[in-house]
Design a protein that fits this description.
The chain has about 450 residues and is an alpha+beta fold. It folds into three domains: about 90 residues, D-Maltodextrin-Binding Protein, domain 2; about 100 residues, Dipeptide-binding Protein, domain 1; about 180 residues, Dipeptide-binding Protein, Domain 3 (Dipeptide-binding Protein, domain 3). It is about 30% helix and about 25% strand. The chain is built from 14 helices and 23 strands. The strands form seven sheets. Strands 13, 14, 15, 16, 17, 18 and 19 form a seven-stranded mixed β-sheet that branches. It has a four-stranded mixed β-sheet with strand order 1-12-11-10.
């Protein structure tokens, strides 16, 4: 027999064998564990699996079609019209219409937690096959904003269960586990996995243990533990910087004057947080946007100036002030969040402020100082700044489009010294051996659209 034929046949067999091992399979249950609430806005993983948005974010940062198939702006971006994808149904069989979309978005804007009680439009209503948004000021980046999970389209059934149009539907919650099953009739196609089991409120240590013994497929890796995960040879996927760690200062009491707030901001040692607490992951920042996104973050000074902080504070004697980590997104960081707060309290003490870090304010009045972790979904600079301003309760809409205009608007907000950006942090996930084709979305969330399980039937 010709040797070349034998070698060729062997190569073909090896190729077919490799293909068989990597070809996606339908079936199986994907087991995910998290420390936080899977419905938490804006980044709860369950929301992404059950609900869809009118638009989605492309790899280049622009808006692309999802539940809306096209859109156009009118009246200098004061009016927008989005045409709804035909033939889409909720998971209980009810048709998606422009009226149900408008009703869902009206409910979003009515929630106290939604964008601090405000949406970037004044009215939204269904008109035939389209949804029309009208705003008092121009919203040129509305298609990008509508891709945020905060604006996902949901409704409730008679029992109060959340229903969406996404690839999975909720079947129950018991013993700390939320169970989802595949939506066979999903407009974007059936997912490979038959179901997802989301175990919530799991300590990272327990998540890693479950991954090691095959009880979990996808678990969280906090940025400060990335090096440890590498040492343990975990298969880790890491996102771009998507979480902003920031100190917020209430402009009242001892911090009623801008000089006192500025003194507190100048006392912060970001480099120590970066090097010691977060193990050199992410990037030091004094900007509301990552450098890679805006291109101008380096213009905001992030160096500590303790002498100037003391001079601005003067000889004023301050009462004990609480630095709270009660924000659930920071509480999810557990020990690391508390260590970061204690480090900030020490920095402020060195500048003459009497500050005590507390895990939760309890029955005390709202803390003058708070450590917050704010998630960023947008990948375009203008939409990202719009999103961050809303997350911090700054009810204004970005109208500029170039970097200079965005920088001017951000500087105007930060000069008030009520928001002190500290670090931009990535998100990371460790993946088990049987998981195939899992990737991260632009904001660090796992994308399960093409994920399958090895050996599933």
């Amino acid at each position: 027999m010709d040797r070349r034929f034998v070698i060729s046949a062997l190569c073909v067999c090896l190729t077919l064998s490799a293909t068989a091992r990597t070809r996606p399979h339908y079936g199986g249950t994907l087991r995910i564990e998290t420390a936080g609430d899977p419905w938490q806005m804006p980044d709860g993983i369950a929301r992404r699996l059950v609900l869809d948005t009118l638009t989605s974010v492309s790899d280049t940062g622009g808006a692309q079609t999802a539940l809306a198939v096209r859109w156009e702006s009118q009246n200098a971006a004061h009016r927008w019209e989005f045409w709804i994808r035909p033939g889409v149904h909720f998971q209980d069989g009810e048709a998606l219409t422009s009226d149900t979309v408008a009703a869902a978005l009206t409910d979003v804007c009515a929630r106290p937690a939604a964008r601090m009680g405000a949406c970037p439009w004044r009215t939204v209503r269904g008109v035939g096959p389209s949804v029309v948004f009208v705003s008092d000021s121009p919203v040129p980046d509305l298609p990008e904003l509508l891709a945020q999970t905060e604006f996902a389209i949901a409704r409730q059934d008679a029992s109060g269960a959340v229903i969406g149009t996404g690839p999975f539907r909720v079947t129950g919650f018991a013993n700390g586990a939320l169970t989802l099953v595949a939506n066979d009739d999903c407009w974007s196609g059936r997912p490979f996995a038959d179901g997802v089991e989301l175990r919530t409120r799991r300590a990272v240590r327990d998540q890693w243990l479950d991954l090691s013994v095959g009880k979990a497929d996808v678990v969280e890796v906090p940025p400060e533990l990335l090096r440890q995960a590498e040492q343990q040879h975990l298969n880790v996927l890491v996102s771009r910087p998507v979480d902003l760690l920031a100190l917020t200062i209430a402009p009242d009491g001892w911090f009623a004057s801008r000089e006192m707030r500025q003194a507190a901001a100048l006392a912060i040692d970001r480099t120590a947080l970066y090097n010691v607490i977060f193990q050199k992951q992410g990037e030091v920042t004094a900007s509301l946007l990552p450098q890679s996104l805006s291109g101008y973050a380096f213009l905001f000074a992030s160096d500590r100036d303790l002498d100037r902080a003391r001079a601005l504070r003067g000889g004023a004697t301050t009462a004990t002030m609480m630095l709270s980590t009660a924000d659930t997104s920071v509480a999810d960081m557990s020990t690391t969040g508390q260590l970061a707060a204690e480090r900030l309290a020490l920095n402020l003490h060195e500048a003459g402020f009497n500050v005590q870090a507390v895990a939760a304010p309890g029955s005390r009045p709202t803390s003058a100082l708070a450590l917050r972790r704010v998630h960023l979904e947008a990948t375009g600079a203008q939409a990202a700044l719009d999103e961050m301003l809303a997350r911090f309760g700054q009810n204004s809409t970005v109208t500029g489009t170039d970097a200079a205009a965005l920088w001017q608007q951000e500087r105007g907000v930060l000069d008030n010294e009520t928001i002190v950006p500290l670090l931009w942090l990535p998100r990371a996930w460790a993946v088990g051996e049987r998981v195939r084709d899992l990737r991260l979305l632009s904001d660090g969330a796992p994308d399960l659209s093409d994920t399958s399980l090895e050996g599933a039937r």
